[in-house]
């Protein structure tokens, strides 16, 4: 059933109803109605969903079960012996951290996406698949997790983490080398 497929694929993609609605330029209530079988998406939205979920429209529309997603990978963590001052891809010093995590993001394992609206629709572009986070202490000693960089491939992210691990000294600094340029994107703390 289409309603069940939409719900399963959305959850496997790690999207909330609100996030899927934003991607499809519809209301969250429309997504809810589709998932409850109270209404159905128009053909254009079915095509866009199949692209977002990485499946064919046939797979989305047919009654066979939705493809099962592999279990979500756990973040890779590096605990450094000392603090490392990170300098981002734009030469901005972010902060000092002693713990670093790599975590996949929901853009797909291939590091590619198809532009759905605006610009050149249908154009394939590289998008990040992994984020590097620095873990440190913030205000009043509370844990602070800061996004340091985004990576087009997991291989690039692992190389970066290996380079950070080799950085020596109690108060060393490290310039990110493999991160994607994210012009116009503000990197913020969580």
Architecture overview:
- This protein is an alpha+beta fold.
- It has 2 domains: 60 residues, 434 Repressor (Amino-terminal Domain) (Orthogonal Bundle); 100 residues, no CATH class.
- It contains 6 helices and 7 strands; from the N terminus they run H-H-H-H-H-E-E-E-E-E-E-H-E.
- A 5-stranded mixed beta sheet has the order 6-5-2-1-7, covered by helices on one side.
- Helix 2 packs across helix 3.
- The C terminus is likely disordered.
Number of helices: 6
- Helix/strand structural class: alpha+beta
- Going across the major beta sheet, what is the strand order? 6-5-2-1-7
Q: How do the helices and strands follow one another from N- to C-terminus?
A: HHHHHEEEEEEHE
**Count of DSSP E strands?**
7
**Low-pLDDT runs:** 107-125, 184-190
Distance between the termini: 38 Å
DSSP strand (E) fraction? Answer: 25-35%
Q: Mean pLDDT score, rounded?
A: 77
**What is the count of structural domains?**
2
Describe the global form.
Answer: elongated
Helix content: 25-40%
Could you give a short account of the major beta sheet?
A: 5 strands, mixed
Radius of gyration: 20 Å
